[in-house]
Design a protein that fits this description.
Helix content is 35%, strand content 14%. By secondary structure, it is of the alpha+beta class. It has a domain at 8-27 and 37-66. The longest helix is centred in the first third of the chain and has 15 residues, at 8-22.
Amino acid sequence: METATPLDIELTVFEEHRQEWSRKNLGKFKVIRGDTILEEFFDEYAVAFRAGLAAFGPHKIFLVKQIWKTEPVYFIA
């Protein structure tokens, strides 16, 4: 039995909506806690993070994730 890790639910919710959100909101940020999704799309990470703090508090885990059609791949040499 696999154990759930922090943000598993949030990442699943994000993936369920990625295609829909990417149609009009590429590059914007979304804030998710559990299955609760803040309605706004944010242009900047810092603004999205502050909205998450305001909505959920500083002691709760929440996801701030940028919307892309596919996940970018980074190479570190």
